[in-house]
């Protein structure tokens, strides 16, 4: 039971990271577009209109808007994590985290101002100005800790009842009071231990750096293998947004920045490399290494699956695979295609993950300087084609080579091991036959189709009361168990169906169950909204 709760907690935490990561991606794109007009001298020579005051003004405005995000990343993580991890009254949890983080900064800063000897003993770069306070710079890691503790406090005190004379301050109003008091005390303790924490982080960073050319490989291999668990965002944040991927010292106003993602945004905004750092080292964990897969190799994999489909079913699966390929190229989103073979062939997914790791490692070995936060054709254009400092042709060359290799590898594996990819009698085909004429199917997304079949097998949305999951089982409470059709549910590729009692159904899917649960919940909501409009 404890293991199941831990897994659920970390899956929830992984989703919490998505809000600041999505915002950071947009901010980086804005900064990237601005940097092309601000710092690309060759482009200015080719198109003198770029130097006009109006265009330069807009470019600087975009750069400033992007900098608001990249320069305040810790507080964004803090607030979003507290919001996501709160059970209810989430807006009060977010506000409580904001107040708690400010109290945390003020408390640490006040201690350092009084105990000057302690300030002198702090590691270099550990003391800086944050939100106007001279304090200990705990970076994104400290903000994550504050956000998690704030959510924990909120979940325990947001319904508290105080004596009548103080009742106005009870309930959700007490959350920010509790967090401010707690972090005033907490902030008095952290400076004494931060030097040890900082040393531990530096040790991890040193270990990652010492993996040499294998660092990018292990990073991307780990991210791909974590995709089925839904916890890859935690991995991304730890690697890209902390000192693990480096500490960079920029000229003012940027100063010392932890993490490659924020550092690359600062580089685009300033046009100046940090002291003692190379661009190739800075970008080795960023999205440039994924472009060979998303823009080139995955579309080739989709074509391989199309060619392996039964001749009479190719027209049916064409839409699915074409949509997946376009999503990968245009948006850099890989899950629709990955899920087309993940459920059917976990071994093939491991091979695919190795290729993803190599797609990061090989460009790094060849000295690629293509960075960015978008692994799409748009990211390739903004952070590659339009930048004179990006050796984008390395990643493109690797992508073309991988497209050819992975096409033949996938085609051989699918045929050799009779993998039930779309059009070969697997989940997709069974789902299409189950859905035909019964559910209005307006999608080619495998996850959505799987969710629709599951809902049908459970007796429809009217028969489903709750949907949740543990580490490997989709746990559903139904109104009438006689409406549950196990044959339909079995067509979704589950490993087993368990009925502990008359109202509960447990469907075993393994480590991908978290994503399946989310897909079912989303589809139920969509169908309910559709019914309400009738």
If you had to describe this structure to a student in words, what would you say it looks like?
This protein is an alpha+beta fold and 534 residues long. Helices cover 64% and strands 6% of the residues. It contains 23 helices and 8 strands. The strands form 3 sheets. It has a 4-stranded antiparallel β-sheet. A two-stranded antiparallel ribbon has the order 1-2. A two-stranded antiparallel ribbon has the order 3-4. Strand 3 and strand 4 form a beta hairpin. Helix 2 runs parallel beside helix 12, helix 10 packs antiparallel against helix 17 and helix 21 packs across helix 23. The two termini are 43 Å apart. The model has no long low-confidence stretch (mean pLDDT 84).
Characteristics:
alpha+beta, two-stranded antiparallel ribbon, 534 residues
Secondary-structure blueprint of this entry?
Blueprint (H helix, E strand, L loop, with lengths): L1 H15 L1 H22 L1 H6 L6 H18 L2 H13 L4 H25 L1 H6 L5 E4 L2 E4 L2 H19 L15 H37 L5 H12 L5 H9 L6 E3 L6 E3 L1 H11 L8 H4 L8 H18 L5 H18 L3 H8 L3 H20 L11 H9 L6 H25 L10 H9 L10 H12 L6 E6 L3 E6 L7 H5 L5 E3 L5 E5 L4 H21 L1
Sheet having the most strands? 4 strands, antiparallel
Indicate the percent of residues in helices: 55-70%
Low-pLDDT windows of residues: none
| Helix segment tally | 23
| Strand proportion | 5-15%
- In spatial order, strands of the major sheet run 5-6-8-7
What's the N-to-C terminus distance? 43 Å
What is the CA-atom radius of gyration, in angstroms? Answer: 25 Å
**Given the C-alpha coordinates, what overall shape results?**
globular
Structural class: alpha+beta
Secondary structure: number of strands: 8
Q: How confident overall, as mean pLDDT?
A: 84
